[in-house]
């Protein structure tokens, strides 16, 4: 099985790189062999109706061979039926800062893209914090990959307005996902986001509008906005706080979570907080022991499990950028290999900032 991640079928030719490309082998296969089309978004893959698909969702459904209801759908349903507000881990976070006098720190991707996070989830968290009467700050990571490159203004304005409805609630910083959500062990990027959150290192601005305007003036699009602290340069996260990473998708939330949570972390210097909680919206890694609002539901009888049960060998091959997709996601949230499963990891290029400069990636290797 060869998965062409991001490859799709559309009658629209404007802006369609696949339609514009010369694909003699692909088109010859379509002409010669039977084929069909699969829905890759919305209810066909366990997402809300109209929600675009993504690589995690695609690999989960392909590996399962059936519709897999995604984390976003589970959380949406909990919000709709009222159980979200009664979530015991959310209550733990809120009760903690009531006791310590600390701050409820929310961090995650502020985007309508629906790939890594959901604005609906963030609004529900802010509503719960307001009802609890706790001091709340939001570290807003900006998108620009699953949304247009410079589209953050309306979402940040909506967030600012939402914060204004609650006492002592505000945006603490903005930062592009390039830094806060790296997944390729480029720890220098993760450190930049971490140092802003923990040590107050970065640009400063008096408000979000000025922060984003300054970033655009520096030539940075949303994805690449350097950390900018709103207000004076000072640490945002402190001992006594409770933090909640509200991304529901695991892969791009792991590195920053490790920096805050792993006692053996040694990729760069980190602070050791006391009386501190770092909670997760979903379980990002089996090795993590953080409190989790929505635990993992493992998919049973995936393709890998069936192949293993038949006593057959299987090989998963990918470069770093997509390694989790052909292993963890394709196996329905299972980290460890199945019996007789081998894995080959080809390191992704580290000398390019974005893959439009190296679109072939590591295909030849």
Task: Provide an overview of this structure.
By secondary structure, this protein is an alpha/beta fold. The chain folds into 2 domains: 17-68 and 299-357, Alkaline Phosphatase, subunit A (3-Layer(aba) Sandwich), CATH 3.40.720.10; 85-294, BPG-independent phosphoglycerate mutase, domain B (2,3-Bisphosphoglycerate-independent phosphoglycerate mutase, substrate-binding domain, 3-Layer(aba) Sandwich), CATH 3.40.1450. The protein is built from 13 helices and 10 strands. It has helices at 17-20, 24-32, 55-64, 71-81, 88-100, 119-132, 152-164, 177-180, 187-199, 208-217, 254-261, 303-309, 320-329; strands at 104-109, 136-142, 169-176, 203-205, 228-230, 242-245, 277-282, 292-294, 314-319, 341-346. The strands form 2 sheets. The protein has an 8-stranded mixed beta sheet, with helices on both faces. The chain has a two-stranded parallel ribbon with strand order 9-10. β2 (136-142), α7 and β3 form a beta-alpha-beta unit. The model has no long low-confidence stretch (mean pLDDT 95).
**Main β-sheet, spatial strand arrangement:** 4-5-3-2-1-6-7-8
Given as residue ranges, the uncertain stretches (5+ residues, pLDDT < 50) are none
Largest beta-sheet characterization: 8 strands, mixed
| Relevant CATH superfamily of the largest domain | BPG-independent phosphoglycerate mutase, domain B
Count of folded domains = 2
Please compute the radius of gyration using only Cα atoms: 21 Å
Which architecture of the largest domain does the CATH hierarchy give at level 2?
3-Layer(aba) Sandwich
SSE class: alpha/beta
Provide the CATH topology of the largest domain.
2,3-Bisphosphoglycerate-independent phosphoglycerate mutase, substrate-binding domain
Q: Approximately how much beta-strand content do the residues carry? A: 5-15%
Distance between the termini: 17 Å
CATH C-level of the largest domain: Alpha Beta
Order of helices and strands: HHHHHEHEHEHHEHEEHEEHEHE
Helical proportion?
25-40%
